[in-house]
Amino acid sequence: MSEPVPAPSVFDRLTVDVHLDPAAEQESLAALAEALAESPRRIPSRFFYDDLGSELFERITRLPEYYQTRTEAALLHASADDIVRASGAEELVELGSGAAVKTRILLDAMERADQLLLYVPMDVSEGTVRRSARQLAERYPRLRIHGVVGDFLLHLEEIPAGGRRLVIFLGGTIGNFLPAEAREFLTHVGELMSSGDALLLGTDRIKDIARVEAAYNDSQGVTARFNLNILRVVNRLAQGDFDPSRFEHRAFYDSDHDWIEMRLASQETQTVRLLRLGLELEIAQGEELQTEISAKYDEERAAKLLTDAGFEVLRWYTDPEDLFGLTLARKSG
After folding, report:
1. Is the peptide bond before 40 cis (omega within 30 degrees of 0)?
2. Any bridge partners for residue 329, and if so which?
3. What is the dihedral of CA 19, 22, 24, 25, to 10 degrees?
4. How many CB atoms are closer than 10 A to CB 258?
5. Coil, strand or helix: which one is 203?
6. End-to-end CA distance of the chain
7. If you ran DSSP here, which 8-state letter would residue 64 be given?
8. What pLDDT sits at residue 25?
9. Residues 108 and 80: beta-carbon distance below 8 Å
10. How many domains does the chain have?
11. Is 143 helix (H, G, I), strand (E, B) or coil?
């Protein structure tokens, strides 16, 4: 009688590719320079996520005011089996994976359905990718993990090819894009998918303004620290001398566009130098730097976004309070 074949070791099943190369850094610097030349000045939200930024965001997701993460997690628990069945996927690709906490709900459902072969997390924080990949490799003894350290705005082409896939973009992150940018991004995602692959998109719902604003102005000040940390990231990248203590976090809802904005307001007139950009910024007292928008969606708006980007909508899921939505779509053609 033959002995059972042992499961491959953690290290045999784990690969991490790092694509934060000098060329990508130059692209990031160019995007930063362009955004700082706008009026009002802007710092792209991609610069939130160094290792500290990722850690602070994970803390934000556990705050009592921040309903998005726990609501989306509950929604995933309720719908994961149906999502896995409808997608037919055996591989899970996650854009902006972070600590992959909610991801485990889908991985568990894929394992129950005997459809779990490969997980591809993509995130800009190398430390976060390596840590979560190791944890998941230990949790799922036969799962292969191919981590990609990179910016999903620059490195989508670095995602390895594979079989039948479910690509997930959760957390309402699509709301950080302007409408035209969101359509362009999802179109590009679709171009890299195979016919029959599925996409799961998480969108924060249009709702009571006070509840939304409270989520971005938490009582513990964690969101303020997260927002201010973007200046430290910019300092490292662009050899800048932003002093975060001279700025104040602000977040407010824009009803005309159905999005919330995060900004950093200068507490005094100041000069900021960014040596690698050759820039010297004169910032007036009270001047605000925009760091993020977070657009809110209803079912119709989410469906139109996906169909315009070349997807066929399969399912729409929302929670009992109608706070958050998940849309499952398939690549058309």
Report:
1. yes
2. 199, 313
3. 120
4. 17
5. strand
6. 49
7. T
8. 84
9. yes
10. 1
11. coil
Radius of gyration of the chain (CA): 20
Single out the residue of 34, 259, 4, 304 nearest to residue 141, CA to CA: 4
Which residues, in sequence order, are bridge partners of residue 14? 145
d(CA 152, CA 171): 15
The one-letter amino acid at 89 = A
Boundaries of domain holding 73: 11-21+52-208+296-331
Tokens of 124: 């800009």
The model's pLDDT over 213-227, given as tens digits with 9 standing for 90+, comes to 999 999 999 999 999
* Distance separating alpha carbons of residues 307 and 298, to the nearest angstrom: 14
Query: Dihedrals φ, ψ of 222, to 5°?
Result: -70, -40
Beta bridge partners of 47: none
pLDDT digits (tens, 9 = 90+) for 34-78: 999 999 999 999 899 888 998 999 899 999 999 999 999 999 999
Q: Is 31 strand, coil or helix?
A: helix
Q: Does residue 180 surpass a pLDDT of 90?
A: yes
Does some domain include residue 258?
Answer: no
Residue 132 placed within a domain: yes
15 part of a folded domain: yes
What is the Cα–Cα distance from 113 to 92, expressed in whole angstroms?
Answer: 13
Q: How is residue 328 annotated by DSSP?
A: E
Query: What's the CA gap between 247 and 228, in Å, rounded?
Result: 8
Distance separating alpha carbons of residues 95 and 182, to the nearest angstrom: 14
List, in sequence order, the alpha helices (H) in the chain. Answer: 22-36, 51-60, 67-87, 103-112, 126-139, 179-191, 209-215, 222-238, 299-308
Q: How far apart are CA 51 and CA 281, in angstroms?
A: 27
Q: Does the pLDDT of residue 157 top 70, yes or no?
A: yes
CATH number of the domain encompassing residue 85: 3.40.50.150
In whole angstroms, give the CA distance from residue 165 to residue 162. 8
* Residues 60, 66 contacting (CB under 8 angstroms): yes
What is the spatial distance between Cα 208 and Cα 323, in angstroms, rounded to a whole number? 9
This prediction's pTM: 0.89
DSSP 297: B
CA-based nearest residue to 171, from 287, 18, 292: 292
Whether 160 maps to a domain, the answer reads: yes
